[in-house]
Amino acid sequence: MEPIDIQKIMSLLPHRYPFLLVDKVLEIEPDKRIIAIKNVTFNEPFFQGHFPGQPVMPGVLILEAMAQAGGILSLTTMDDKEKDGAIFFMGIDKAKFRSPVLPGDQLKLEVTLLRPGSKIAQYEGKAFVNDKLVAEALLTAMLKK
Question: Which residue in 28, 47, 61, 87 is a FRET match for 70, CA 20 to 30 A apart?
Fold first, then answer.
């Protein structure tokens, strides 16, 4: 599939600023995997308090970015009738944070669909900065109609 820009992402996901955490999709293999980008800027609202003088992207937001990429992957393979519902984050397993994500970093999100399903799906998410693994987790989501 062609890369997906922010306008298409916003047509798929209900999230908006400041909680939309995927800026662009570079690659997508329907029902298999997605590679997406989150540009981390100093203007992110969470940096005001996490942490003053030493800004670090919160790990839970890295996980949320992975989940949003997984949602895009699932939504691009559903028919229009299935898209009427919403995808809800259900679970996180085996989350590991290996390095801090800082202002100016570009987070590359690689999410693989491990268990497709019409109601519940499981994904393996990995986040990289400059090809270095910074976070990973198993994510579970549910389609709610």
Answer: 47
> pLDDT digit string (tens) for 68-111?
999 999 998 876 656 666 789 999 999 999 999 999 999 999 99
Of the candidates 62, 57, 66, which has an alpha carbon nearest to the alpha carbon of residue 110?
66
Assigned architecture for domain 6-144: Roll (3.10)
Structure tokens belonging to residue 132: 């270095």
15: annotated active-site residue? no
Catalytic residue, candidates 8, 15, 33, 50? 50
pTM: 0.94
- Position of tokens 């995997």? 33
For the chain, what are the domain ranges? 6-144
